[in-house]
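Anyone else keep sequences and structure tokens together like this?

Example one:
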Amino acid sequence: MTRQSISLTGPNNDWLNEQVKNQEYSSKSELVNDLIRQARSQQARVDWIRCKIEKAEESGFTSHNREEILSKAMLNG
């Protein structure tokens, strides 16, 4: 595991300490790693949506209604 030194603002440090104090996490490192995992997962979803939007824009106009479009999008993952 790589060790890293970071600087935190007072409010962010207080919040991290509170999470550890409340036993939500066993350490600040565990919490920061979890926050990074969540951010990476969210970025993957944003990238997926962006890809779908780009494909849709390239395909042109449609006569399908909103429900049909959403249904097809869910089937195609």
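And example two:
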Amino acid sequence: MAHGSEGHRADETVRSIPPRLLDLKATAAYLGVSPWTVRDLEFSGVLRRVNIPLGPRKELRKLLFDRQDLDRLVETWKGG
């Protein structure tokens, strides 16, 4: 039975690790703006998305953003 509780603790550990890549909705929430604003920032080149390759000349279509890039961007917006 102890083995089962070890697996449960491992699951909790994985869930407690914040994701580095955030989807559109999570990015908007993280920055405190709307998803449309995030789309506009990405389209204008202010915000870089992470492109995940899926094979030759293919990539994941989902918009994903690196939390570290978001933090750096906020710092530049603050003038820091």
